[in-house]
What we know:
Blueprint: H1 2-31, H2 38-69, H3 73-94, H4 104-130, H5 133-136
Helix pairs in contact: 1-2, 1-4, 2-3, 3-4
Amino acid sequence: MEFLTTLHGHNRWLIILFAVLAVITLILNRKDPSEYKKNTLLFGSIYAYALALQFIIGLILFFPKAQALEWDMSALRIQFEHATTMILAVAIAHSAAAWKKLDTSRRIKNTLIAYLISLFLIVLGVIRIGGMSLWIGS
Length: 138
């Protein structure tokens, strides 16, 4: 379990990297929205699927952690808040697939908004579970 905890903790940096790459490619694609560029689709897909994988790892870790906390309601509440925030982040990141039939400029705009919201939720969820020290390393 310790390996999964470490993997889950370190993977957040990859998730953030993929999110930033997806957002950058979407912004660059907005300048020329004649077509949905391959890199835009690639980085968006990597971000969404890496986030889903991260969520699965977190879910595997959640139940033993919740059981170990027993009836410490304050700690359990934080765990549930983190899990709920991350479920929303995953769902919003994957919502981009719903806009495949829109015209390219609207698809890019909606996807960009969805990725930014999911990225914001990820940052909030990580801050909630461990504070800013998880981001700045102190």
